[in-house]
Amino acid sequence: MPELPEVELVAAELRAVLTGRKLRRLRHAHADVLSYGPGLDAAALSGREFTGAGRRGKMLLLQLSPSELVLTVHLRMTGRLAVEPADSDPPVHCHVILELDGDEELRFTDARRFGRMQLLERAQLAEDSFLRRLGPEPGELELHTLRERLARRHGSLKGALLDQSLVAGLGNIYVDEILHRAGLHPALPASALRSEESARLHESIDVVIAAAIEAGGSTIRDYRKPSGEFGSYQLAHQVFGRAGQACPRCGADVVKIVVVGRGTHLCPDCQPKRRRKARRTRQVIGK
DNA sequence: TCTAACCTGATC
DNA sequence: GATCAGGTTAGA
């Protein structure tokens, strides 16, 4: 469900709500959902204090003291965290409940049960298989790095951008929106981008992600902030979820195709497949 | 690098 | 009843 902008907003809200709060104890946990690093167990959670919340890619990092523990949370498709009154009924599919001070609970809900939480010592974070493979955050991705990485790839541009080791945090919605803004077809070979195209792509990543955070993220069906608030960036989507509707930029019908197994939305006019004429022009210039 | 699999619910 | 879903990953 959530991509970088949504996870960023969840982290910000949890930072505001949880920092300084005591974690009394673990009240409930589905064994498949919450796991523990070496030497840790449920008892290690009792009596801790939340000292902050952050994010790396789509992974939430909740910091606990003393002794530098980190609770990692990946929401995957339908995961949601919420701070709710302890005397309220936990929602269906609530898989982890942490009792807080002030008669509230931090609850993790996830209909599809793809999401994962893990309690780790800070030093163990570097060994986490997901975090270890993450590429740079969009804001730290240099243009020359993007170019080098795309040039080395086979396969489609969309597949490359969804690969968390190339750049961290992009998912299906934002890749479609970024490629539309950059005027690039998702199925283009990643290694085929010209200089000005990769520059447009680089800029579009920053612009789209920043605008999405500004708008509170995208709520397609499940995403809510911990407070229950919906995002509004879905209203600004140019192509995602808009198959058959007019492209806001040119008026052509947005189409939906499948690329790397994912539903992919694009405007065939704004995001043309490479034409032979254009390629020949480039070769002439190249000489 | 791509596909199928992991789960459940919503929608066609 | 079949298909699809905002993510990740083992295995081909």
Overview in brief:
With 287 residues, the chain is α+β, with helices and mostly antiparallel strands. It has seven helices and eleven strands.
What does this structure look like?
With 287 residues, the protein is an alpha+beta fold. The C terminus is likely disordered. Strand 10 and strand 11 form a beta hairpin. The chain is built from seven helices and eleven strands. It is elongated and about 65 Å long. The strands form two sheets. It has a nine-stranded mixed beta sheet with strand order 2-9-5-4-3-1-7-8-6. It binds a DNA duplex (12 and 12 nucleotides) through helix 5.
Features:
287 residues, alpha+beta, nine-stranded mixed beta sheet, 7 helices, 11 strands, disordered C terminus, DNA-binding
Could you tell me the number of beta strands?
Answer: 11
The strand line-up of the biggest sheet is 2-9-5-4-3-1-7-8-6
- What is the tally of helical segments? 7
Give the N-to-C terminal Cα separation: 47 Å
Strand content: 15-25%
What is the H/E string? Answer: HEEEEEEEEEHHHHHEEH
Categorize the overall geometry.
elongated
Q: Unreliable runs, pLDDT <50, ≥5 residues?
A: 276-287
Q: Give the radius of gyration.
A: 21 Å
The portion of residues assigned to helices is 25-40%
